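does this look right to u?? 5,6-dihydrouridine-5'-monophosphate version
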Amino acid sequence: MFDWKQDPHRRYNPLTGEWVLVSPQRTARPWQGRVESGGGAPEPEYDPECYLCPGNARAGGLRNPNYTSTFVFDNDFAALKPSTPVDRFEEGGLLIAESEPGICRVVCFLPRHNLTIAGMDPAALRKVVDVWVEQYAELGSNPAIEYVQIFENRGAMMGASNPHPHCQIWSSRSLPNEVSKEQASQRAWREERGACLLCEYLKLERAARHRVVEENDSFLVVVPFWAVWPFETAVVSKRHLPSIDRLSGAERDGLADILKRTTARYDRLFHVSFPYSMGIHQRPTDGLEHEEWHLHLHFYPPLLRSATVRKFLVGYEMLATPQRDITPEAAAERLRGV
Ligand code: H2U
Ligand code: ZN
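got this back:
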């Protein structure tokens, strides 16, 4: 008899069409998780060297205003530029390139340098959600922009250049890879079954419960059945809606609440400010309705066993298929336990 808790198997990700290898037997060895502090002195409330703190200078000579809640600016080192001319190159069907115009912004969540989402109060977080909605609508209304990717890198391990609470927005003319895969899967599901992929998935998870980590009236947080990262989660809107601009006021509060509670759980797991990349997946801004899209966020945290032991996608994972040891069910149980 096959045992899902013990025997190697692979799981299918219906959003991307990819597989992950699960090897739970490798965690049978005794748990040796240690409690380690993040090290270093605590961050100050204001850092005169921080390019995101109010009143401070940024690269290129610009100075931040003395902002009091959120603050949005165009990225001084933008990966995408609005002035890029549209063009395409192709040779022999093999060498293909397209110019990629876009707009990149940085959103400071707060003037305070040393808070994270977990430590912010709900009203301040609601303000951040409102800014995401505004930015999504504003950038998305630009006819040259088809997708608005809002994401946060938290912690030096994930490439965040600065502990000041902030996120980035990269908006582009084309659909990014991950979004494109998820869109194709959601569309195919809808066409073949006349239903929403993530609405159906929510039903399964709400009935099963073992992968559920957090829940409020508007959102459910699960360790997805097909998770790759040890403590990966998905934050899924309970109502079928394509994008953040369709959230009601109560649902925006719900998003703020669930983000705070989820990141607080992460921080409690290894007693550190938990690093992650988080991002919102939603309807492209190409002017179409996109009934197939179901709003959700992904948290991809790299930590595995402690503050310092992280997972890398190397070896077999780079050359063949991503792999995990701890099962999604066990990860959800750990997260629920803190
Ligand atoms: P990360 O912490 O996720 O790297 O985001 C910070 C962004 O801030 C990064 O994209 C930008 C970087 O280009 N930045 C500025 O726009 N101005 C600065 O003075 C420094 C950094
Ligand atoms: Zn700062």
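The chain has six helices and 14 strands. idk if thats expected tbh
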